[in-house]
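Supplementary Note 3. Input sequence used for the single-chain structure prediction.
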Amino acid sequence: MKIYDFTQAPNPRRVRVFLAEKGITVPYEQVNIAAGDNRKPEFLKKNPMGGLPVLELDDGTFIAESVAICRYFEELHPEPNLMGKDAKEKAVIEMWNRRMEFEVLAMTAGAFRNTSEFFKGRIPQSPDYGEICKNAAIKRLEWLDGELANRKFVAGDRFTIADITALIGIDFGRVTGIRIQDGQKNLARWHQEVSSRPSAKA
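The predicted structure, written as C-alpha coordinates, is reproduced below.
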Protein backbone atom coordinates (compact mmCIF):
# COMPACT_ATOMS: atom_id res chain seq x y z
CA MET A 1 0.00 0.00 0.00
CA LYS A 2 1.17 3.52 -0.82
CA ILE A 3 -0.16 6.96 -1.63
CA TYR A 4 0.89 9.00 -4.65
CA ASP A 5 1.32 12.50 -3.29
CA PHE A 6 2.47 16.02 -4.13
CA THR A 7 3.31 18.03 -1.03
CA GLN A 8 2.48 21.45 -2.51
CA ALA A 9 -1.08 20.60 -3.59
CA PRO A 10 -4.12 21.04 -1.32
CA ASN A 11 -5.97 17.76 -1.87
CA PRO A 12 -3.04 15.49 -1.02
CA ARG A 13 -2.61 17.54 2.16
CA ARG A 14 -6.20 16.74 3.11
CA VAL A 15 -5.38 13.04 3.16
CA ARG A 16 -2.07 13.55 5.00
CA VAL A 17 -3.79 15.54 7.76
CA PHE A 18 -6.59 12.97 8.00
CA LEU A 19 -4.14 10.08 8.36
CA ALA A 20 -2.03 12.04 10.84
CA GLU A 21 -5.11 12.58 13.01
CA LYS A 22 -5.66 8.82 13.02
CA GLY A 23 -2.01 8.01 13.61
CA ILE A 24 -1.85 5.95 10.41
CA THR A 25 1.46 5.72 8.57
CA VAL A 26 1.41 4.99 4.85
CA PRO A 27 4.39 5.27 2.46
CA TYR A 28 4.17 8.23 0.08
CA GLU A 29 5.54 8.43 -3.43
CA GLN A 30 5.92 11.93 -4.84
CA VAL A 31 4.46 12.70 -8.27
CA ASN A 32 5.69 16.06 -9.53
CA ILE A 33 2.72 18.03 -10.83
CA ALA A 34 4.98 20.94 -11.77
CA ALA A 35 6.91 18.65 -14.12
CA GLY A 36 3.68 17.17 -15.50
CA ASP A 37 4.40 13.68 -14.18
CA ASN A 38 0.73 13.27 -13.29
CA ARG A 39 -0.19 13.61 -16.98
CA LYS A 40 2.19 10.94 -18.24
CA PRO A 41 0.73 7.65 -19.54
CA GLU A 42 2.20 5.61 -16.69
CA PHE A 43 0.40 7.68 -14.05
CA LEU A 44 -2.81 7.97 -16.07
CA LYS A 45 -3.12 4.19 -15.85
CA LYS A 46 -3.44 4.69 -12.09
CA ASN A 47 -5.84 7.64 -12.32
CA PRO A 48 -7.15 8.59 -15.77
CA MET A 49 -8.20 11.98 -14.35
CA GLY A 50 -4.56 12.77 -13.59
CA GLY A 51 -5.30 14.08 -10.12
CA LEU A 52 -3.62 13.50 -6.80
CA PRO A 53 -3.70 11.89 -4.31
CA VAL A 54 -4.12 8.27 -5.34
CA LEU A 55 -4.09 5.33 -2.95
CA GLU A 56 -2.65 2.07 -4.34
CA LEU A 57 -3.72 -1.03 -2.40
CA ASP A 58 -1.69 -4.19 -2.15
CA ASP A 59 -4.11 -6.00 -4.48
CA GLY A 60 -3.50 -3.44 -7.25
CA THR A 61 -6.65 -1.39 -6.69
CA PHE A 62 -6.28 2.37 -7.20
CA ILE A 63 -8.51 4.75 -5.24
CA ALA A 64 -8.47 8.41 -6.21
CA GLU A 65 -10.36 11.40 -4.73
CA SER A 66 -9.42 12.65 -1.27
CA VAL A 67 -12.66 11.90 0.54
CA ALA A 68 -12.87 8.39 -0.95
CA ILE A 69 -9.38 7.67 0.38
CA CYS A 70 -10.28 9.10 3.77
CA ARG A 71 -13.46 7.02 3.89
CA TYR A 72 -11.47 3.87 3.16
CA PHE A 73 -9.22 4.50 6.14
CA GLU A 74 -12.16 5.55 8.34
CA GLU A 75 -13.74 2.16 7.72
CA LEU A 76 -10.52 0.34 8.57
CA HIS A 77 -9.70 2.55 11.57
CA PRO A 78 -12.93 4.05 12.93
CA GLU A 79 -11.23 5.71 15.90
CA PRO A 80 -10.54 8.52 16.36
CA ASN A 81 -13.74 9.09 14.44
CA LEU A 82 -13.62 11.90 11.87
CA MET A 83 -16.64 11.18 9.66
CA GLY A 84 -19.52 10.49 12.06
CA LYS A 85 -20.63 7.78 14.46
CA ASP A 86 -24.33 7.45 13.64
CA ALA A 87 -26.66 8.29 10.76
CA LYS A 88 -27.40 11.84 11.91
CA GLU A 89 -23.81 12.78 12.70
CA LYS A 90 -22.52 11.23 9.47
CA ALA A 91 -25.04 13.27 7.48
CA VAL A 92 -24.24 16.52 9.31
CA ILE A 93 -20.47 16.06 8.89
CA GLU A 94 -20.92 15.13 5.22
CA MET A 95 -23.06 18.24 4.70
CA TRP A 96 -20.45 20.53 6.22
CA ASN A 97 -17.56 18.82 4.48
CA ARG A 98 -19.29 19.28 1.12
CA ARG A 99 -19.91 22.93 1.94
CA MET A 100 -16.24 23.39 2.78
CA GLU A 101 -15.31 21.65 -0.49
CA PHE A 102 -17.61 23.68 -2.72
CA GLU A 103 -17.72 27.01 -0.93
CA VAL A 104 -14.15 27.34 0.36
CA LEU A 105 -11.66 24.89 -1.16
CA ALA A 106 -13.12 24.94 -4.68
CA MET A 107 -13.23 28.73 -4.69
CA THR A 108 -9.65 29.20 -3.46
CA ALA A 109 -8.46 26.57 -5.93
CA GLY A 110 -10.46 28.21 -8.75
CA ALA A 111 -8.83 31.55 -8.02
CA PHE A 112 -5.40 29.93 -8.19
CA ARG A 113 -6.03 27.87 -11.33
CA ASN A 114 -7.37 30.80 -13.28
CA THR A 115 -4.91 33.52 -12.25
CA SER A 116 -1.61 31.79 -11.48
CA GLU A 117 1.39 31.68 -13.79
CA PHE A 118 1.82 28.08 -12.63
CA PHE A 119 -1.08 26.97 -14.83
CA LYS A 120 -0.35 29.25 -17.79
CA GLY A 121 -0.18 27.08 -20.90
CA ARG A 122 -1.17 23.98 -18.90
CA ILE A 123 -4.93 24.49 -18.72
CA PRO A 124 -7.40 27.02 -20.20
CA GLN A 125 -7.55 29.99 -17.84
CA SER A 126 -10.13 32.70 -17.29
CA PRO A 127 -8.75 35.49 -15.10
CA ASP A 128 -12.23 37.00 -14.79
CA TYR A 129 -13.57 33.74 -13.42
CA GLY A 130 -10.54 33.56 -11.12
CA GLU A 131 -11.57 36.91 -9.64
CA ILE A 132 -15.14 35.67 -9.24
CA CYS A 133 -13.81 32.67 -7.32
CA LYS A 134 -11.60 34.88 -5.16
CA ASN A 135 -14.46 37.20 -4.27
CA ALA A 136 -16.73 34.24 -3.56
CA ALA A 137 -14.11 32.72 -1.24
CA ILE A 138 -13.74 36.00 0.65
CA LYS A 139 -17.51 36.14 1.15
CA ARG A 140 -17.59 32.52 2.28
CA LEU A 141 -15.01 33.28 4.97
CA GLU A 142 -17.29 36.04 6.25
CA TRP A 143 -20.16 33.54 6.33
CA LEU A 144 -18.06 30.87 8.06
CA ASP A 145 -16.98 33.38 10.71
CA GLY A 146 -20.65 33.85 11.57
CA GLU A 147 -21.28 30.10 11.69
CA LEU A 148 -18.38 29.59 14.08
CA ALA A 149 -19.90 32.02 16.55
CA ASN A 150 -22.27 29.20 17.52
CA ARG A 151 -19.95 26.21 17.81
CA LYS A 152 -16.33 25.23 18.34
CA PHE A 153 -15.73 23.37 15.08
CA VAL A 154 -17.16 23.48 11.57
CA ALA A 155 -19.59 20.56 11.92
CA GLY A 156 -20.24 20.71 15.67
CA ASP A 157 -18.43 20.35 18.96
CA ARG A 158 -15.57 18.13 17.78
CA PHE A 159 -12.87 18.08 15.11
CA THR A 160 -13.87 16.26 11.90
CA ILE A 161 -13.00 15.96 8.23
CA ALA A 162 -15.00 19.16 7.65
CA ASP A 163 -12.40 21.06 9.67
CA ILE A 164 -9.61 19.48 7.64
CA THR A 165 -11.20 20.55 4.35
CA ALA A 166 -11.82 24.08 5.63
CA LEU A 167 -8.26 24.38 6.95
CA ILE A 168 -6.73 23.28 3.65
CA GLY A 169 -9.00 25.61 1.67
CA ILE A 170 -8.24 28.63 3.83
CA ASP A 171 -4.49 27.98 3.91
CA PHE A 172 -4.38 27.49 0.15
CA GLY A 173 -6.20 30.78 -0.32
CA ARG A 174 -3.13 32.68 0.88
CA VAL A 175 -1.49 32.01 -2.49
CA THR A 176 -3.97 34.38 -4.14
CA GLY A 177 -4.40 36.82 -1.25
CA ILE A 178 -7.49 35.25 0.33
CA ARG A 179 -7.04 35.70 4.06
CA ILE A 180 -8.94 35.74 7.33
CA GLN A 181 -9.75 39.39 8.08
CA ASP A 182 -9.07 41.21 11.35
CA GLY A 183 -12.74 41.36 12.31
CA GLN A 184 -13.34 37.63 11.79
CA LYS A 185 -12.62 36.69 15.40
CA ASN A 186 -14.52 33.39 15.39
CA LEU A 187 -12.79 32.16 12.25
CA ALA A 188 -9.40 33.30 13.56
CA ARG A 189 -9.98 31.48 16.86
CA TRP A 190 -10.95 28.30 15.02
CA HIS A 191 -8.03 28.54 12.59
CA GLN A 192 -5.51 29.02 15.35
CA GLU A 193 -6.88 25.98 17.20
CA VAL A 194 -6.93 23.61 14.24
CA SER A 195 -3.56 24.88 12.96
CA SER A 196 -2.04 24.08 16.35
CA ARG A 197 -2.91 20.41 16.06
CA PRO A 198 0.17 18.29 15.19
CA SER A 199 -1.67 16.87 12.18
CA ALA A 200 -1.79 20.30 10.51
CA LYS A 201 1.92 19.98 9.77
CA ALA A 202 1.46 16.73 7.83
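The chain has a mean pLDDT of 97. The chain has seven helices and four strands.
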